[in-house]
Write a structure and sequence with these properties.
The protein is mainly alpha-helical. The protein has a domain at 47-71. The chain is built from two helices and two strands, in the order αββα. The protein has helices at residues 2-27, 48-70, and strands spanning 28-31, 36-39. Strands 1-2 form a two-stranded antiparallel ribbon. Strand 1 and strand 2 form a beta hairpin. The two termini are 20 Å apart.
């Protein structure tokens, strides 16, 4: 239970600065032809499948190791 709560909490804590850093880095662009700076919509891709796998896998691994310790 502690591992599951820790994974979800760290996922949320990690998403906030990740998006905050990525947003301004992906909205500014540079046109090499006109040498002008331009703004565009941000392109932020979040690897949800990997994050869910970690949030499910780590608590299951911790539970399995605890079960092996008891056996």
């Amino acid at each position: 239970m502690i591992a599951a709560c820790g994974c979800v909490l760290l996922l949320l804590v990690g998403l906030v600065p990740g998006i905050a850093i990525t947003w301004p880095l992906t909205t500014q662009g540079w046109d090499p032809v006109t040498a002008q700076q331009f703004s565009q919509s941000p392109s932020i891709v979040i690897p949800w499948l990997h994050l869910v796998a970690i949030c499910v896998g780590v608590p299951l691994l911790a539970a399995g190791l605890a079960w092996l310790r008891l056996v």
